[in-house]
Specification:
Elements lengths: L7 H31 L9 H11 L9 H10 L9 H12 L4 H5 L5 H4 L8 E6 L2 E3 L9 H8 L6 E4 L11 E3 L2 H10 L3 E5 L5 H4 L5 E9 L6 E10 L13 E5 L6 E6 L5 E2 L16 H12 L7 E8 L5 E7 L6 H4 L10 H10 L2 H8 L1
Antiparallel strand pairs: 1-2, 1-5, 3-4, 3-5, 6-7, 6-11, 7-8, 8-9, 9-10, 11-12
Helix pairs in contact: 1-4, 1-13, 4-12
């Protein structure tokens, strides 16, 4: 409110907006913490001196720094690093600032993947529905039932049908084996994409029923170079999808070597040293790791005006790393931080300084 020249009413509107985001993210995290405790996590608090160091580091963002994040990280990993980001500050201050552009809503629409990114790394698509209109793979409108039926005859099963926007948590994703089933799902979903179903590589099928590697990348505010921040292998458990909201577990992967960290967690902090279904120890090295890194960076070169990118990568039966999803908002920092790694690693100071000076609330005031 005090540090820029905008009129009071603009400052007031942005302040109310900020407090709303901060309040909602704080409440949601408190509810998550309650669930973790109900599932048996015994929080081990930091020494008071470390807590004060942590609060001092993040205090420029807010007068009352939430310390639950660092206590949980310390409990799970045994580590302390002041650069661990408080969950509510990440959402209300950092993510919204680095990815302020509205282009993120276009670039995360799955119906745009094969149009915008110009890459064969994405699954082949057959059909799209947007705003009650059905399109073919080239986004040509299928104007009548006859044309639609002709296009449906070209679909090679099995396929996946899912919403082309807002698929967080793996909701409304369906694996379809025949035309009758596909037509039924097409009637029930409002907006969707129909894609080929990729076949999982045997390396991962020997471990889990479903996998993706979440690769988090950062386009530096200093030189616009893309850097891989961290990686986590997300694995299905008990037949679930790999999303933590669906019951999956996450395993930290060293972003420089591809070596798995040996311990996985579910969203509530339950620890696994082996996969609970296959009994495979979690200390392997990710295959074709250099290709995984190169493909991830290549995709990010196509993303403009945004600085945090999280990709869900999948190793198919042809030993190719494919892109399942591009995430530009709603990033999960827990995949890195549960293992004691600050989400931005060596770039934390750079990000912190940038966000304090270029906070989204200042940008918002320019538009009001």
């Amino acid at each position: 409110m005090r540090i820029n020249k905008f009129p009071f009413h603009k400052k007031a509107l942005s302040t109310v907006k900020y407090l709303f985001y901060y309040g909602v993210s704080t409440i949601l995290y408190k509810l998550h913490l309650k669930k973790m405790k109900e599932n048996g996590l015994n929080i081990i608090a930091l020494e008071r001196n470390d807590t004060e160091i942590y609060k001092k580091y993040w205090k420029p963002f807010h007068w009352n720094i939430e310390t639950d994040t660092i206590h949980i990280v310390h409990t799970l990993s045994g580590k302390f690093d002041r650069r661990i980001i408080p969950e509510n500050i990440f959402f209300s201050d950092i993510e919204l600032t680095l990815n302020y552009s509205k282009s993120k809503y276009f670039l995360t629409n799955k119906s745009m993947y094969n149009r915008w990114y110009k890459s064969d790394l994405f699954p082949k698509d057959y059909l799209h529905k947007m705003n009650e209109i059905i399109y073919d793979s080239n986004l040509v409108e299928l104007s009548n039932t006859g044309v639609l039926n002709e296009t449906l005859q070209l679909v090679k099963f099995p396929v996946v049908i899912k919403p082309n926007i807002d698929t967080s948590g793996g909701s409304n994703i369906f694996f379809i084996n025949d035309l009758v089933e596909l037509k039924e799902k097409m009637r029930t979903l409002k907006n969707y994409v129909v894609q080929e179903r990729l076949v999982q590589n045997t390396f991962f099928s020997n471990i889990t029923n479903a996998h993706t590697i979440r690769v988090c990348l950062y386009k530096s505010v200093k030189d616009n170079q893309v850097h891989i921040l961290n990686m986590a292998l997300r694995m299905g458990k008990d037949g679930s999808l790999d999303n933590d909201g669906a019951g999956g577990i996450a395993l930290s992967i060293n972003e420089k070597t591809g070596k798995a960290g040996g311990v996985a967690y579910n969203k509530y902090g339950t620890k696994y040293h082996k996969h609970p279904n296959s009994n495979v120890a979690l200390d392997f090295t990710i295959p074709y790791f250099d290709k995984l890194c190169a493909n991830s960076v290549d995709i990010c070169e196509n993303i403009i005006d945004l600085r945090i990118i999280s990709l869900d990568m999948f190793l198919d039966s042809n030993n190719e790393w494919r892109v399942i999803e591009v995430n530009l908002y709603g990033h999960s920092i827990r995949f890195a931080q549960y293992f004691g790694k600050p989400f931005f690693g060596e770039f934390t100071d750079e990000v912190k300084e940038y966000c304090l000076v270029n906070h989204w609330a200042f940008q918002d005031q320019k538009l009001l």
